[in-house]
Write a structure and sequence with these properties.
The structure holds eight protein chains of eight kinds.
Chain E (H helix, E strand, L loop, with lengths): L14 E5 L11 E7 L2 E8 L7 H5 L4 H8 L7 H16 L5 H30 L2 H22 L8 E2 L2 E2 L7 H24 L2 H7 L7 H6 L4 H5 L7 H4 L20 H23 L20 E9 L2 E9 L7 E5 L1 H7 L1 H5 L4 H11 L3 H5 L1
Antiparallel strand pairs in E: 1-2, 2-3, 4-5, 6-7, 7-8
Chain G lengths: L2 H11 L4 E4 L4 E5 L1 H13 L7 E9 L3 E9 L6 E9 L4 E3 L8 H12 L2 E3 L31
Chain H lengths: L7 H21 L3 H26 L5 H31 L4 H6 L3
Helix pairs in contact in H: 1-2, 2-3
The chains are: A mainly alpha, B mainly alpha, C alpha+beta, D mainly alpha, E alpha+beta, F mainly alpha, G alpha/beta, H mainly alpha.
Bound molecules: iron/sulfur cluster (3 copies).
One iron/sulfur cluster binds next to helix 2 of chain C.
């Protein structure tokens, strides 16, 4: 089977979820009361904004992740031909990794990998 | 009888007259079958809210543990969020300060929802009836489906209570929309007159 | 260098401790006969409570429909939360004396805390605990029980 | 094309269907019909796998915990999850005040669609391979990297503190561990020299990769297992829905069937990573062969490939469940530490070792 | 002219989040209001009272026998110890010497209850950390103790077994055999706890150095029981003010000096071993005799003030009775260990993460009805 | 011309791209904008897929959809709250920008439609991963070994830059 | 230290204190304005070293309200009971939660139940009951019908 | 195969529309993150063009393919740094609105 089927699976999944939700919306019993649609906070009315501010912690990881994600993407073509190209490919990847590991070391030293 | 619980005879249960009250006519054949299927699903998948206030909560935990194993009934999926829970087992004392919280939790649960009052405290205030700070029975706050007396009830008693609840669910008609809150409250107050 | 050795040591130690834990859980997984679950409704026939188990308060009646309660009210007085309510009537005994007799022994199962005081203080051992624990009901009022049976009388010889 | 059905090779079967349909109507309609058939089959497959994984998890954890687990709904509680499904279908769906309705509803779509699309590339047996892309491994990785968006949207749009906290946690966690999953897969691709899953499976005809690649392959397998467990948000990495901390995490506000989809997607993701591990490390549907032992290999060949595939996947799923029910949960900083200070550097080095081994031809079997 | 609504709050401002009353890790209905910066806990404000049942007021209109059924329900996991405190106080006030048999039985049952309580703590601590299987193993072993209790006292959890002057009923004939069986059984299974949790790297990482409390702080906060002893505060009432038969048995007070979550954890694990030692010393020589002395049906304490402290599973439990010579106490105050331990929560958790808060809370092992009374 | 599945697919993707890219720049909720952007990018990956550049489609999904958009969503989660909405753009500005864009678009499209491309009509060959790998690592004329290495330096620079910027304490009080 | 020695050294610090030996423990009664400085001494004095406050009870004596402190020294293991009373209309007692940290919660409890105001307490709010609760339930004259909502 | 029967112009029109949607966003948006998103749209449309030209005009070569590959990589690096800067600005000024940031410079 070929690529057309991707779109098929996409549609099937959408139909599955959508169908179930629509069905459930009509079939399930409902009731209304004043607090039903309030956010849940252990049974206490929420005070203030339902918003948490985050410090550097999370997004720094997201940034470093992106960098390494690019790296993986570039390594995949290399991985495929590694067997065929042999030495030259090996040297190229060693250099490639070396530079990246420098970055990782830098992040490590700068405590960017310490979650706070 | 339309209500069967595995391994238990109809006569083995208490309060069969009480059960008959809940019986609702299902309409035509199609609806009866559908009702049957849906009620089968509902009664066999009662997910409780993790809600325990005091001693009875420990026995509720014991009921979930290896010896008694709630999971056999398919109700081991304790949900911490009321949005995903079907039944709220009021295990323990409810005091006036807690009452609005309980009410809110109950209100935030999606329909259909059920309540089991577990233990003397939840039924009537139990040992603390004479206190200045007690709710004398959770049925004053939320409609209760099954009362499981004891102080604390044994885990088996809770399992028995759950089976009673299953019977009650099986009596209901899934499509008649009789399960909505206002009607439930009204019906329950009538029953408890 | 030492750092690197420590680095690998910590990895090794971590894996080892994880494996120790997995051995415990894994061993149970492969020994299903250690399962201790009682299958409650299935084993209903064989399920035996301990004889002292406090399930509910009952008033034993003998085959002549006689109980031993003199309606003295001591249990009611000792009950910490008013679970017991006794109504008595005064009847006339054959020899002309007025006597209190039990009319209704009302016991609210939904309130009882099983403290055992009532049984302990009862001077004529009229009440005991039974083992029955299957009480769940749909209606709270069903939990208020009258313990003395219809038309029962006081056993002879109990004062 | 004659009708040849064999549990050892599905190619004939699928081609027969194809040929029959093409013979019966115009190509356009043939394709369409084919799609409908495949779609329905796949849907059923998806649902069955999802439901029974949930059931399996409950039984496995019950056995680990010295109890019997669901046993009152059908024989051995076999219909337990179906009852759950029916119940969840008939459960009210609550919308949250001030929530972003569009995104709130979109989130389950995203998680389900991604798991569905990723599943499409898994080779189940010879000839039973919905889509065989030449970038197979990479494709599965790419698709599953989008599932996290669903979680982030779910958390943010619920307008609840717990959800947001859970979403942030699981977002940081999933993207971090995705790297290690990718690295472990790259390591194996170096050995395979291809990304196409069918080719990768074929290459393991004589011996599975985990044996072929010995040391670095085993390391990669361990890393993959850890990272995959974390990427699917399962214990001991289930911080996002850490019951004891955040109630139910990012899906705190979801009820009824929408919640069920998150639940389902979690299990399907587990199935996908397990399948991928089975395919890349354990030879997919290839039977267990030992080079040189011909009679043994023949015996192994008798077991149908589908069973091999299912067995390996089940084994890995069991392993993941075993993890979950044994370990306590990590804390968020430890979790990130583990990834960035242990798994990532090790897997970087591991790739180099693997490359070196490939370079020198030190792997077993050619 | 701005295009979007600018949020008034400063970006790094603390936000507050509610944990509880209905929350799996607050062990009941404690409500904690956390001030968070990111995921860092800046301040924890416990809000109690969600299960305040007014027990202290109720005791003022109850006889001493009836009070037992309330002390049972304070810290229901160490119900025996709480009851013993009332009984001891009454007995001391009336100058009643209970038979040796009663003393020994009380000691054994208390130690059993302590083990059961620690087992339950272990399950819930494991669950707090996310190790769900602990929950089942702990409760599995606890069932054995509950069986022993039920056989003798008639109830599993809340037994009301003590009464002023002795016990409600004599031991069941099977008691000794069952207890011995249990000791053998549990000695075999306790190492499993260590393998599963104590030695686990994740657990150690999560608890070592978390929530450190020095000895001085612990004393100042009145942290008693295993929580206090984890900080090196020697506060075992059984040692310092012996009651029952504790002066006749040899046992060690388990002390650790680190004061972190792991120390508190290990103290409890070791205490289970210690309790088994105590039981082993006593179980074979329970003296014969009455199980209670005859008491007047209505007990009146002579006018005066009485204080009685016992070592409950979570720390020092005390009762303070002011009597005016009537059958009801004039004022009765319970010094509940959890209440004091809870006051240290804020100091323990500052600067830690939410997950640490859960672990610390688990290691304090609070029972909310005991706090709220 | 007979309608084939290809047409349907293309139509779906094209419609998704057009609708969602316009929604991306006009919606008033920021996270919705990011979600629409995600959908645009996914549809683009679909187009790549149709062009038979499967690897590029994968890269598009991993880096754009799974990387950049996730990062953007993360930063949105950090900086905005659900109750925030953009105020509608001033009509003048919207008017002129829309005018400029539409004019540009019409200009471009007419140019495109008028120009006769020497497009091949043969069906696309599949591009093997080996081919990509080989030309990426080869050092001859059509090879990209140098950019490949330079990318690593670029990534290093980006990482260091991001860390420096992010880790810097508040500029001034 | 025996009770006699305790008496002597305490009288040295605070001559107005009244000391008497009870059935169980040594009792000390002190005026509320002297209490805080005495408490400071009780803890810091090397010989007394009452570093462990194990109980704090509010009591309604009828005409006055009072607080009873149970103190112990973890080094010498001697125990003492301190009584401080306050008048019923405007009960005020200095806080000691800066000396013994555990007192912070206990004092809030006493405030909650008896309405005793601890001056300088950092956070004197009701701890168990609602903020809106009327009256102080453990006082003898508390009318239980005040707050009957259920 | 999959692109059979679809003219090259169709692809180009789609990418043009995307490009100008990006331009519109770039002109009207005032939030730094949305501006970044517009830029991504623009870049993406350029990528489509590269690939389309490569596929239809020089199907035997891979230049366009590699160009877009590197463009995506650079876009990722750019996004990483841009987001870091945006968040820093936000931490500093408590807004990521260009005009406000402009005003608050001193
Ligand atoms: S009913 Fe009894 S056991 Fe249950 S919570 Fe109330 S007092 Fe505790
Ligand atoms: S049951 Fe016993 S105590 Fe109660 S009224 Fe009857 S005789 Fe008296
Ligand atoms: S057991 Fe206790 S509560 Fe129950 S009726 Fe007897 S005295 Fe009352």
């Amino acid at each position: 089977m070929s690529g057309e089927f991707l779109i098929l699976f996409f549609i099937v999944a959408v139909v599955l979820v959508g169908g179930a939700i629509i069905f459930s919306n009509y079939a399930a019993p409902t009731s209304e009361n004043a607090v039903k649609h309030d956010p849940y906070e252990c049974g206490i009315p929420t005070k203030g904004l339902t918003w948490l501010q985050f410090n550097v912690g999370y997004y720094l990881f997201a940034i470093i992740f992106l960098v390494f994600d690019v790296e993986i993407v570039f390594v995949f073509p290399w991985a495929v031909v590694m067997k065929d190209l042999g030495m030259s490919a090996f040297i190229e990847i060693v250099i490639f990794f070396f530079v990246l590991v420098l970055g990782l070391m830098y992040a490590w030293k700068k405590k960017a990998l310490v979650w706070e | 009888m339309g209500v069967k619980i595995k391994s238990m005879k109809y006569e083995d249960f208490e309060d069969n007259e009480g059960l008959e009250v809940f019986k609702q006519s299902g309409g035509n054949i199609l609806f009866t079958t559908l009702d049957g299927i849906i009620n089968w699903g509902r009664s066999n998948s009662i997910w409780p809210l993790t809600f325990a206030t005091s001693c009875c909560g420990i026995e509720m935990m014991a009921a979930g543990a290896a010896r008694h194993d709630f999971a056999r009934f398919g109700i081991e999926v304790y949900r911490a969020s009321p949005r995903q829970a079907d039944v709220i087992v009021v295990a323990g004392t409810i005091v006036p300060k807690m009452a609005p919280v309980l009410k809110r939790l109950y209100d935030q649960m999606p329909d259909p929802k059920y309540v089991i009052a577990m233990g003397a405290c939840a039924i009537s205030g139990g040992p603390f009836v004479n206190s200045y700070s007690i709710v004398k029975g959770v049925d004053l706050i939320i409609p209760v489906d099954v009362y499981v007396p004891g102080c604390p009830p044994r885990p088996e008693a809770l399992l028995y209570g759950v089976m009673q609840l299953q019977r009650k669910i099986k009596m209901e008609s899934a499509f008649s929309k009789k399960n909505t809150e206002a009607q439930r409250t009204q019906r329950d107050t009538e029953n408890n007159k | 260098m030492r750092e690197i050795i420590n680095y690998f040591k910590s990895i090794f130690f971590a894996l080892k401790s994880l494996w120790t834990g997995m051995k415990v859980t894994g061993s149970y997984f492969f020994r299903p006969w250690t399962i201790i679950t009682q299958q409650y409704p299935e084993n209903r026939k064989t399920l035996k409570m301990f004889e002292r188990t406090k399930g509910e308060l009952v008033m034993p009646h003998n085959d002549k429909n006689e109980h031993q309660c003199t309606a003295c009210g001591i249990c009611q007085m000792n009950c910490p939360n008013g679970t017991i309510a006794i109504t008595s009537l005064s009847i006339e005994t054959p020899d002309g004396k007025k006597k209190k007799a039990l009319d209704k022994y009302i016991y609210n199962l939904g309130m009882c805390t099983f403290c055992g005081l009532c049984v302990k203080v009862c001077p004529s051992d009229a009440i005991v605990f039974s083992n029955k624990f299957e009480h769940a009901v749909f209606n709270k009022n069903k939990l208020v029980k009258t313990l003395n049976k219809e038309g029962s009388t006081l056993k002879k010889g109990v004062e | 094309m004659p009708f040849t059905f064999s549990i050892y090779d599905f190619t004939g079967f699928t081609q027969w269907i194809d040929a029959t349909l093409r013979g019966a109507c115009s190509p356009f309609w043939a394709v369409l019909w084919e799609m409908v058939i495949v779609g329905v089959l796949f849907l059923a497959f998806y649902a069955v796998v999802g439901l029974y994984l949930v059931y399996a998890e409950r039984k496995v954890c019950a056995f680990i915990q010295n109890r019997v687990g669901p046993n009152r709904v059908g024989p051995y509680g076999f219909f337990q999850t179906i009852a759950d499904l029916i119940k969840l279908l008939m459960k009210e769906i609550i919308s949250i005040r001030e929530a972003d309705k569009l995104l709130f509803n979109l989130a389950p779509f995203i998680v389900i669609v991604t798991s569905f699309l990723a599943l499409a590339a898994i080779p189940f047996a010879k000839g039973l391979h919905p889509i065989d892309l030449n970038i197979g491994v990479f494709y599965v990785m790419a698709i599953s990297s989008m599932g996290v968006v669903g979680i982030l949207l779910a958390g943010w749009s619920s307008n609840s503190k717990y959800s947001l906290l859970g979403a942030m946690r699981s977002g940081a966690q999933i993207i971090s561990y995705e790297l290690s999953v990718g690295m472990a897969l790259v390591t194996m691709c170096v050995l395979a020299g291809s990304l196409q899953l069918s080719v990768i499976v074929e290459q393991q005809r004589d011996l599975w990769f985990i044996f072929k690649g010995h040391f670095p392959a085993v390391t990669a397998f361990i890393i993959y297992m850890i990272a995959a467990t974390a990427e699917t948000n399962r214990g001991p990495f289930d911080l996002a829905e850490a019951e004891s901390e955040l109630a139910a995490g990012f899906h705190t506000e979801y009820s009824g069937i929408k919640f069920a989809f998150f639940f389902l997607a979690e299990y399907m993701n587990m199935f996908i990573v397990a399948s991928l591990a089975a395919t890349v490390f354990l030879g997919g549907w290839m039977p267990f062969h030992i080079p040189g032992l011909e009679s043994f290999n023949h015996v192994m060949d008798f077991i149908p490939p589908v069973l091999w595939y299912i067995g390996k996947t089940a084994f890995i799923i069991l392993l993941m469940m075993w993890f979950k029910w044994t370990f306590p949960r990590l804390r968020i900083d430890q979790l990130l530490n583990l990834e960035w200070k242990f798994l990532l550097p090790i897997s970087l080095v591991n790739i180099l070792i693997m490359a070196f081994i490939v370079l020198m031809g030190w792997y077993i079997g050619l | 002219m701005t295009e979007e609504i600018i949020i008034k709050e400063a970006p790094e401002q603390e936000i507050s989040i509610n944990m509880g009353p209905q929350h799996p890790s607050t062990h009941g209905v404690l409500r904690l209001v956390l001030s968070l910066k990111g995921e860092m806990v800046q301040k924890v404000e416990p809000h109690c009272g969600y299960i305040h049942r007014g027990i202290e007021k109720m005791t003022e209109s109850m006889t001493y026998q009836q009070i037992i059924h309330l002390t049972d329900r304070l810290d229901y996991l160490s119900a025996h110890m709480n009851n013993a405190a009332v009984c001891l106080a009454v007995e001391k006030a009336l100058d009643i010497e209970v038979p040796e048999r009663v003393k020994v039985i009380r000691t054994i049952i208390e130690e059993l209850a302590r083990i059961a309580s620690h087992q339950l703590w272990w399950c819930s601590f494991g669950m707090d950390l996310g190790g769900l299987t602990c929950f089942f193993y702990g409760l599995r072993d606890r069932e054995k103790i509950l069986d022993i209790f039920e056989e003798t006292t008639g109830s599993r959890l809340i037994q009301s077994y003590n009464c002023p002057g002795g016990l409600m009923a004599d031991l069941h004939p099977d008691f000794q055999r069952k207890v011995k069986e249990f000791i053998v059984y549990f000695r075999k299974l306790l190492p499993e706890y260590d393998e599963l949790l104590s030695g686990n790297i994740i657990m150690m990482e999560r608890s070592k150095g978390i929530g450190v409390m020095t000895k001085e702080q612990a004393i100042s906060y009145g942290m008693t029981g295993p929580s206090g002893r984890g900080s090196g505060f020697s506060c075992d009432v059984r040692k310092h003010h012996p009651y029952h038969a504790y002066d006749k048995v040899k046992f060690n007070e388990v002390l650790r000096t680190e004061g972190d979550t792991y120390a508190r954890y290990m103290v409890r694990i070791d205490e289970m071993r210690e309790s088994m030692n105590i039981i082993e010393q006593l179980i074979d020589n329970i003296p014969a005799g009455d199980f209670a002395v005859k008491m007047k049906p209505i007990i009146k304490l002579p006018e005066g003030e009485y204080y009685q402290r016992v070592e409950a599973a979570r720390g020092e439990f005390g009762i303070y009775i002011i009597s005016k010579g009537e059958k009801y106490p004039y004022r009765m105050k319970f010094r509940s260990p959890n209440f004091s331990n809870l006051s240290a929560l804020d100091a323990l958790t500052r600067g830690h993460k939410i997950a640490d808060l859960v672990a610390i809370g688990g290691s304090l092992d609070y029972v909310i009805p005991d706090i709220d009374r | 011309m007979e309608i084939t599945v290809n047409h349907l697919m293309f139509g779906l993707f094209a419609a998704m791209i057009m609708v969602f890219s316009i929604l991306t720049v006009t919606t008033r909720r920021i996270l919705r904008a990011a979600t629409f952007l995600l959908l645009v990018l996914v549809a683009t990956a679909g187009l790549y897929f149709m062009l038979n550049y499967q690897f590029m489609a994968g890269v598009q999904l991993t880096l754009y959809a799974g990387g950049i958009v996730v990062l953007i969503i993360f930063s949105i989660l950090l900086t905005s709250h659900i109750s925030q909405k953009f105020e509608p753009v001033g009509w003048k500005k919207a008017y002129f920008s829309a005018l400029a864009s539409i004019a540009g678009a019409i200009l471009c499209i007419t140019t495109i439609l008028q120009h006769k491309f020497q497009a091949t009509t043969e069906a696309a060959k599949e591009i093997d991963m080996k081919l990509i790998g080989n030309s990426m690592l080869s050092t001859d004329r059509d090879g990209y070994a140098l950019p490949f290495e330079v990318i690593s330096v670029l990534l290093l620079a980006a990482m260091i830059g991001a860390i420096v910027v992010a880790k810097r304490k508040k500029l001034k009080e | 230290m025996t009770n006699q020695e305790l008496k002597d050294s305490i009288l040295k610090i605070e001559p107005t204190a009244v000391l008497e030996e009870g059935k169980q423990y040594l009792n000390l009664t002190v005026a509320s304005d002297k209490w805080h400085s005495l408490a400071q001494q009780l803890k810091e004095n090397k010989d007394l070293a009452f570093d462990y406050l194990f109980n704090l009870t509010g009591v309604d004596y009828g005409d006055t309200l009072g607080v009873v402190y149970h103190l112990e020294s973890t080094t010498f293991h001697h125990v003492m009971v301190v009584r401080v009373s306050a008048d019923r209309q405007n009960p005020q007692i200095p806080t000691i939660c800066d000396i013994w940290r555990t007192a912070e919660f206990h004092e809030r409890e006493a405030f909650d139940f008896f309405g005793i105001k601890f001056t300088n307490h950092p956070d004197l709010r009701r701890i168990f009951l609602d903020e809106e609760w009327k009256g102080y339930p453990l006082r003898k004259d508390y009318d239980s019908s005040l707050n009957q909502s259920y | 195969m999959l692109n059979a029967g679809i003219p090259m112009e169709a692809f180009l029109v789609v990418s043009t529309l995307m490009f100008f949607a990006g331009v519109y966003g770039f002109l009207t948006r005032r939030n730094l993150i949305t501006i970044l998103m517009s830029v991504e749209l623009i870049l993406n449309s350029v990528n489509i063009n590269f690939l389309v030209f490569n596929r239809f005009l020089y199907p035997d070569k891979l230049q366009g393919h590699f160009f877009s590959l590197f463009i995506i990589a650079i876009a990722a690096a750019e996004a990483a740094v841009a987001i870091a800067i945006i968040i820093n600005i936000y931490r500093h000024f408590n807004t990521i609105n260009v005009e406000d940031v402009d005003k608050m410079r001193y």
